[in-house]
Amino acid sequence: MNISAKLAMFSIAAILVYLGLAILGLGGFAAFFSHPALVVIALATLVMAGLSLFTEANLSSGEREDRANRWVLPVFGVIGLLSAFIPAYTDRMDFWTFGGEGIRWVGAVLFMAGGALRIWPVFVLGKRFSGLVAIQPGHTLVTDGIYRTLRNPSYLGLLVNALGWALAFRSNVGIVLTALLLPALIARINAEEALLHSQFGAEYEAYCAKTWRLIPGIY
């Protein structure tokens, strides 16, 4: 099994653990699947797990890597595990929650939209997409499609996806956990953009001058 396949299998296992923790937090299968919006989220999660099998995502250090940025990976992991369980648990306990089924549906829509935005760039980048901050062999800039406007669409997808998850459980704690992703995410973006600038120089500067970093019209 090659590295990409191993990473895909790991991603599927992580997604299933994530979903399992949410089911546990909400009190079991019956409680979780009694909410139609959460059923939709579960199905969307399984679809994303299946799609990950067809990507070329990897964990290659490539030709050059910014190893100093690896600290963000365990941070993402810890926040991810907390986000899997705590919003569902606070929903069950009705602790610091808000809204009703309508909010759950808003969350479901955002979760799916964020998931699509998260995985779409993985297909676009192919072997250039690494879980590490690295320049891959034959690395070239992608400046068309969604990258014509946004330099980091997958990270925007991650934030929208996480916010949707929090809203699906009506969880203020989940929103706080989503906000806690920002420092590590911005550090990751800074590291990636610095590495790309060192690799592509004026070409990357020109690209940055006509695109948004994360949120169109804002940042």
UniProtKB/TrEMBL annotation:
Residue intervals passing through the bilayer: 7-32, 38-59, 71-90, 102-120
Tree of life domain: Bacteria
Keywords annotated in UniProt: Membrane, Methyltransferase, Transferase, Transmembrane, Transmembrane helix
A molecular-function term among this protein's GO annotations: protein C-terminal S-isoprenylcysteine carboxyl O-methyltransferase activity
Keyword Methyltransferase: yes
First-listed, main subcellular location of the protein, grouped into a coarse class: membrane
Full protein name: Isoprenylcysteine carboxyl methyltransferase
